[in-house]
């Protein structure tokens, strides 16, 4: 009899399953009301006294083994079910993930470069710390030229030849020096001017400048290109070119877009005129072409420059230019949905 119980113990220890019903059947077989254990306990009365001790111990062992086995199998089954819950339920909503935002300056810069790259312009960049030649002299602004005062310049104190570029026109000089026409390039970048900081102006801001040099380029090409740009950028194609002066272009003009007067904001940003100034432009001065190694009798070209900060403020209704450089997360995270 004892041997039979021992066989059962061995069997119980070996038993394994992953099915719920099998565990339950196993439990009923050993631990159920009419199970084997109760049968053995009933047998206890008939066991001779000298065997009672061993018999009792063996049945208890079987009982413990069976109980432990049932618990262990049940736990394994539950763990598996839990795992399934984590990895298996594909209908569960995902954990919300924090997404980043592009800076409004980058957004507008990308938009402008996209528009121009679709009509054959490439992107060129240059250093923010420039020399006098690239920022001024090559652009028809020799030393002591009064127009240098138009752009209050930050000089490097120990070397008056080195300065922080006041416009991205310096990149165009570099580009013309290193590339042959036809040239179609736009140069976005940060520029610096020694100006008082206020809601409307800062000592650094961003420009994007375009340059087009080829044979027989005319003012009409410039106008058409700008019109295409304002149409793509703002959905407005009515522009106005007001005569102006830049040392590096002749003739020169300020670019105005007809913004309209539909809303109160329109009145405010256009000062009641409906027209909004977005930048400067002109036909590249022959002196500049000569300075950069391009023959002005063979080639002509146009250039234009627009302020990225101003356009960003306009499109995103930003009331203070300082917000663009303060990096306040509460401001920056508002551009999450913009592309
Ligand atoms: N560089 C000029 C500025 O910063 C803008 C400009 C660019 C004007 C190209 C004409 C042609 O004011």
UniProtKB/TrEMBL annotation:
Gene Ontology terms: biological process: phenylalanyl-tRNA aminoacylation
Domain (Aminoacyl-transfer RNA synthetases class-II family profile): residue spans on this chain: 108-334
Reactions catalysed, as given in the entry: tRNA(Phe) + L-phenylalanine + ATP = L-phenylalanyl-tRNA(Phe) + AMP + diphosphate + H(+)
Enzyme class: ligase
PROSITE patterns: AA_TRNA_LIGASE_II (PS50862)
Keywords for the protein's UniProt record, in alphabetical order: Aminoacyl-tRNA synthetase, ATP-binding, Cytoplasm, Ligase, Magnesium, Metal-binding, Nucleotide-binding, Protein biosynthesis
A cellular-component GO term for this protein: cytoplasm
A family per Pfam: tRNA-synt_2d
Stated family: Belongs to the class-II aminoacyl-tRNA synthetase family. Phe-tRNA synthetase alpha subunit type 1 subfamily.
Name the record gives this protein: Phenylalanine--tRNA ligase alpha subunit
């Amino acid at each position: 009899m004892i041997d039979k119980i021992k066989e059962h113990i061995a069997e119980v220890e070996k038993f394994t399953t992953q099915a719920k019903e099998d565990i339950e059947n196993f439990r009923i077989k050993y631990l159920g009301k009419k199970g084997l254990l109760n049968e053995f306990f009933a047998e206890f009365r008939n066991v001779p006294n000298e065997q009672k001790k061993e018999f009792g111990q063996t049945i208890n062992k079987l009982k413990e083994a069976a109980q432990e086995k049932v618990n262990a199998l049940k736990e394994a089954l539950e763990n598996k079910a839990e795992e399934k819950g984590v990895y298996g339920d594909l209908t569960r909503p995902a954990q919300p993930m924090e997404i980043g935002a592009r800076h409004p300056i980058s957004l507008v810069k990308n938009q402008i470069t996209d528009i121009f790259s679709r009509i054959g312009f490439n992107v060129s960049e240059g250093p923010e710390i420039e020399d006098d030649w690239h920022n001024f002299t090559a652009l028809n602004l020799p030393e002591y030229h009064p127009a240098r005062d138009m752009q209050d310049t930050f000089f490097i104190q120990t070397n008056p030849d080195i300065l922080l570029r006041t416009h991205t026109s310096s990149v165009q000089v570099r580009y013309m020096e290193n590339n042959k026409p036809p040239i179609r390039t736009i140069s976005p970048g940060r520029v610096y001017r020694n100006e008082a900081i206020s809601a409307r102006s800062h000592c650094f801001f961003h420009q994007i400048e375009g340059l087009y040099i080829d044979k027989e380029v005319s003012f009409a090409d410039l106008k058409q290109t700008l019109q295409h740009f304002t149409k793509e950028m703002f959905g407005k194609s009515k522009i106005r070119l007001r005569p102006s002066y830049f040392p590096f272009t002749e003739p020169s003009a300020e670019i105005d877009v007809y913004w309209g007067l539909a809303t109160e904001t329109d009145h405010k940003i256009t000062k009641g005129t409906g027209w909004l100034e977005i930048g400067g432009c002109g036909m590249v001065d022959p002196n500049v072409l000569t300075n950069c190694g391009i023959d002005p009798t063979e080639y002509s070209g146009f250039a234009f420059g627009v302020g990225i900060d101003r356009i960003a403020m306009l499109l995103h209704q930003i009331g203070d230019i300082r917000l663009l450089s303060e990096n306040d997360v509460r401001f920056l995270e508002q551009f999450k949905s913009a592309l």
